[in-house]
Design goal:
Elements (H helix, E strand, L loop, with lengths): L26 H14 L2 H10 L4 E2 H8 L3 H13 L3 E6 L2 E6 L2 H15 L6 H5 L13
Antiparallel strand pairs: 1-3, 2-3
Helix pairs in contact: 3-4
Length: 140
């Protein structure tokens, strides 16, 4: 492996006790995961997922709880459904949404727990006197 000039890390691959095997992840799986993270990356959609961790709900209930128009909430839920994060079913005249599976629940709580942890700052940030702490997750 050739290291570009001026970017010598000061170590060699043999300094690390062996070669790491690349992960066996397909390009398709990486693309799908990236789409999921994009869908999760908008706070209003993430808030809908958090709301649904408490149980399935009709789109009208979700809109009322969020203080948004039904059409706005429906659009957000459509994005989440397209990425396999929520499912829907008809119950009489209502469309009821719920989280697709336990993986989604775990992903949401893991992200919120990670976000609530105090951030470890880099040396340059500490030198500048930057403080960064997140609030504790109380959603469980």
């Amino acid at each position: 492996m050739t290291v570009p000039r001026g970017s010598d890390p000061g170590c060699r691959p043999e300094d690390h006790g062996g070669r790491r095997e690349p992960l066996d992840v397909s390009g398709e799986a990486l693309e799908r995961a990236a789409r999921i993270f994009r869908a999760l990356g908008e706070p209003s959609r993430l808030r809908l997922l958090v709301f649904l961790t408490r149980g399935d709900a009709c789109v009208t209930e979700v809109a009322e709880a969020e203080g948004d128009e039904i059409s706005t909430v429906s659009q957000r839920l459509r994005v989440l459904r397209n990425e396999g994060l929520v499912s829907r079913r008809r119950q009489g005249k209502h469309i009821v949404y719920g989280l697709a599976d336990q993986h989604v629940v775990d992903m949401i709580f893991n992200a919120l727990e990670h976000a609530a942890e105090p951030r470890k700052m880099s040396a340059p940030a500490k030198a500048k006197g930057v403080t960064a702490y997140a609030t504790h997750n109380t959603h469980r």
